[in-house]
């Protein structure tokens, strides 16, 4: 059995599209578990009326991604066997009809492995956004190997399953036995980084990490924040992002992520390089925002 765990919060129409795409799956042996973390926009009613087979769990609005996903996984662990699987999926995605079938087929061929998917943008489904990620755990350098490449061209190559260093929560199949062996997602990373940390932890415990390029997730870039370059932000918003639980820039969570993922000799270098890159990028994007505002002001005054 495959259990698809989806955390949601106040994105009713987005969630509806995601669930609709799962109804089109060619693979039959799966159940959907939606963890609604305190939605007030009618999400619960939409699911109960439109998708009555979905298992709906409720949160109080303070679970965030990690807590909500853990709640779904805990539900699975109470009812599943070790041979079963969990697929973590975000509601701001839709999936191709053979998505689950591809992941399960690869998992059968690759025992003791976590299998991720390839992400394409809803703005341009012909181009890969995220797939097999490589991470230098000394220099904090992330390399998205196939970002920007033509997806159809990748499908013509001989090997459609590639190793990776980390896996996103956006469409990854995980053996139930992995959760039993290494635990759940780390609540010290409530909203960002817990998926990468979990896959890194699994890898260090002997699990292999792969991406199946035949399993496709179409990500809504407006909600996921997936883009093809840094977006200009105002200085005030930038500073707030260093302390916001919703932000990838949160300095404390980046420290925790580095501490959990790195060996002790890698940690100080990784964190230093990570923060250095973050601040350099922040200066560039904030300066770009300031320049754009000045340009608009000049046009108005003229």
Task: Give a description of the structure.
The chain has 302 residues and is an alpha/beta fold. It has two domains: 2-224, Spore Coat Polysaccharide Biosynthesis Protein SpsA, Chain A, CATH 3.90.550.10; 235-301, no CATH class. 41% of the residues lie in helices and 23% in strands. The protein has helices at residues 12-22, 43-50, 64-77, 99-109, 151-155, 176-182, 194-204, 221-224, 235-241, 251-261, 267-301; strands at residues 2-8, 30-37, 55-59, 85-88, 93-95, 113-121, 124-130, 133-136, 141-144, 161-163, 172-175, 208-219. Strands 1, 2, 3, 4, 5, 6, 7, 10, 11 and 12 form a ten-stranded mixed β-sheet that branches. Strand 8 (133-136) and strand 9 form a beta hairpin. The radius of gyration is 20 Å and the shape is globular. The termini are far apart. Residues 288-302 have low confidence and may be disordered.
CATH secondary-structure class of the largest domain? Alpha Beta
| CATH topology tier name of the largest domain | Spore Coat Polysaccharide Biosynthesis Protein SpsA, Chain A
Give the amount of beta strand, in percent: 15-25%
What oligomeric state do these chains adopt? single chain
CATH hierarchy: architecture of the largest domain: Alpha-Beta Complex
Write the CATH homologous superfamily of the largest domain.
Spore Coat Polysaccharide Biosynthesis Protein SpsA, Chain A
Q: What is the overall shape?
A: globular
How many separate domains make up the residues? 2
């Amino acid at each position: 059995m495959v259990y698809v765990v989806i955390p949601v919060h106040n994105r009713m129409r987005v969630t509806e599209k995601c669930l609709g795409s799962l109804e089109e799956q060619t693979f039959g042996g799966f159940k959907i578990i939606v963890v609604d973390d305190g939605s007030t926009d009618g999400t619960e009613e939409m699911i109960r009326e439109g998708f009555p087979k979905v298992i709906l769990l409720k949160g109080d609005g303070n679970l965030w991604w990690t807590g909500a996903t853990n709640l779904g996984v805990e539900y699975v662990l109470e009812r599943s066997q070790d041979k079963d699987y969990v697929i973590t999926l975000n509601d701001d995605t839709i999936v191709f009809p053979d998505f689950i079938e591809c992941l399960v087929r690869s998992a059968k061929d690759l025992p003791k492995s976590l299998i991720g998917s390839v992400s394409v943008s809803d703005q341009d489904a012909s181009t890969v956004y995220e797939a097999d990620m490589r991470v230098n755990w000394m220099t904090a350098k992330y390399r998205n190997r196939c970002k920007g490449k033509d997806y159809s061209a990748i499908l013509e190559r001989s090997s459609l399953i590639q190793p990776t260093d980390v896996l996103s929560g956006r469409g990854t199949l995980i053996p139930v036995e992995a959760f039993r062996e290494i635990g759940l997602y780390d609540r010290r990373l409530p909203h960002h980084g817990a998926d990468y940390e979990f896959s890194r932890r699994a890898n260090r415990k002997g699990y292999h990490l792969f991406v199946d390029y035949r399993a496709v997730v179409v990500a809504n870039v407006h909600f996921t924040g997936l883009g093809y370059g840094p977006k200009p932000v105002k200085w005030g918003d930038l500073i707030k992002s260093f302390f916001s639980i919703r932000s990838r820039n949160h300095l404390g969570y980046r420290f925790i992520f580095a501490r959990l993922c790195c060996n002790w000799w890698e940690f100080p270098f990784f964190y230093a390089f990570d923060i250095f890159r973050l601040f350099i990028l922040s200066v560039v994007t904030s300066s770009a925002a300031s320049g754009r505002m000045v340009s608009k002001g000049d046009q108005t005054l003229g």
